[in-house]
Input
Amino acid sequence: MIVALQALAVTLRDEARAQRLLTLTGLTADELRARATEPAMLAAVLSFLEAHEPDLVAVAEALQMPPQELVAARSALDA
Output
């Protein structure tokens, strides 16, 4: 769950990526804050990153980890 929270933080630091996340998920910033620790929400954020490889790679690089680690984190949250 920590990797997913870190990925969420990095995602939200990039204004364009954060706006795309909110637009594509239909979430509001308040909903995202309120549900940020829910495994389903974190899995959805990681799925959002997986759906657009440049975002996945950028976030993984910011976290200094391979993109596959983010994919594995999403799989673990979905289990």
Notes: The CA atoms of residues 27 and 33 lie 10 Å apart.
